[in-house]
Amino acid sequence: MIKVSVIVPIYNAEKYLEQCLDSVVNQTLKEIEIILIDDGSTDGSAEICKKYLDDERVTYFRKENEGLAAARDDGMKLAQGEYIGFVDSDDWSEPDMYDKMYTAAKTNDSDIVFCNCMQNENGYVFTPEMPSGAYDREKIKSEILPHTLAYVGKGGNKRALRWSNCLRLYKKELLDKNGIKFDRRLRRSQDLQLTYEATLVAQNYYYIAEPLYHNRVVADSLSRGYTKNMWPLYTYLIEILYKDTENFKELDLMDQMHLRAFFFATDCIENEMKPLCPNNISKRIELINEVINDPICERFKGHIQTDKLSPLYRKYYEFIVKKKAEKFIPYTERYKRNAEFRGKYINPLIDALTENNVYKTIRGKR
Fold first, then answer.
1. Maximum CA extent, the chain
2. Domain end: 164, 190, 215, which one?
């Protein structure tokens, strides 16, 4: 019996591919199949993949380039395992990752098992967003679903449970029974669609706080570099998520959905302020206008609790409501300068005074 199908979508990944595949074929859980989907690579990825075909658990398929969602979808069609997992071709996993996750799944009859991850080789571990252990349906509705799309974290910043498919095992029966698969047209945040839809129907869930997966963030990754035409990459996904939320009747998640749409809008606005952005001011304002005049922004207006947001995002919301595209860039630049000044001078001074009880004394007299 194949316990886990591990799907590895590959596109021009020769630089990191061997480390990725070594981490998968050397898993302590041996009853796995490894499905390599080459999404039309033009570098040496194909030759690297073929080195692993002596392992009878490894299969390799090459296809025309269609993007990550389509590659994962093709892998899911081929999967025969009891559970399905994903590994990105520039990441790698701990040797016992699937052993621990499968054991948790079987012990608790879990539909989804979620683990923590470590970013790069710098040892940074993401802060666990929920206690380790099992979650039944009622706890999924009260503790997981309200945080899957979006929530406001400490300091008023954008937060959500990490929705990476690579951190999860999905019971294949759950996905097949509910017709859950990747929408092949998605080109951005594809993980959220599958994770959200699977979580909406999951009856049992398990979280392992231990970082079993290593996420590599490269300098030119989407999260750091400038993304051309970013807003159109999100709009189709947002419509899918709104439809999923409307169709889900057990719990009202529409506030979280509005917040997610707002966060996606601010992501695209902030994209125009990245150092690598090639556009001049007028082009940036034009693209911001495209975002804030979209009907999606009209949809979440009046549904965002601004008192929980940081001053920056409260201001962003105000600019969106008033459609003041020209205000974003100068305000953000001032905000960042003030934040740098506070971080460099004010906060260390307060820390020093507090350490000597001076700051507390002054506050007490006031």
1. 76
2. 215
Encoded tokens for 27: 């898993």
pLDDT one digit per residue (tens) for the chain, 366 residues: 999 999 999 999 999 999 999 999 999 999 999 999 999 999 999 999 999 999 999 999 999 999 999 999 999 999 999 999 999 999 999 999 999 999 999 999 999 999 999 887 666 777 777 899 999 999 999 999 999 999 999 889 999 999 999 999 999 999 999 999 999 999 889 999 999 999 999 999 999 999 999 998 765 444 457 899 999 999 999 999 999 999 999 999 999 999 999 999 999 999 999 988 999 999 999 999 999 999 999 999 999 999 999 999 999 999 999 999 999 999 999 998 887 766 665 667 666 666 666 545 555 555
DSSP code string of 6-70: EEEEESS-TTTHHHHHHHHHT-S--SEEEEEEE-S--SSHHHHHHTTTTSTTEEEEE-----HHH
Question: How far is the first Cα of the chain from the last one, in angstroms, to the nearest whole number?
Answer: 71
How far is it, in rounded angstroms, from Cα 156 to Cα 52?
Answer: 47
For residue 209 the two structure tokens come to 């706080």
Let me know: does 213 contact 167? Beta carbons within 8 Å.
yes
Q: Which residues pair with 205 in a beta bridge?
A: 112, 135
Residue 281: both structure tokens together: 């001011």
- Give the separation between CA 140 and CA 203, rounded to whole angstroms: 8
CATH number assigned to the domain comprising residue 146: 3.90.550.10
| Angstrom distances, CA of residue 152 to CA of 101, 229, 234, 263 | 29, 26, 20, 10
Q: How many domains does the chain have?
A: 2
Q: Are residues 238 and 305 in the same domain?
A: yes
d(CA 63, CA 248): 35
Residue 70 and residue 205 in one domain: yes
Do 246 and 322 sit in the same domain of this protein?
Answer: yes
**Which structural domain, as residue segments, surrounds residue 56?**
4-215
Within a domain: 351: no
Q: Do 207 and 246 fall within a single domain?
A: no
What are the DSSP calls for 235-254, one per residue?
A: HHHHHHHHHHHHH--SS--H
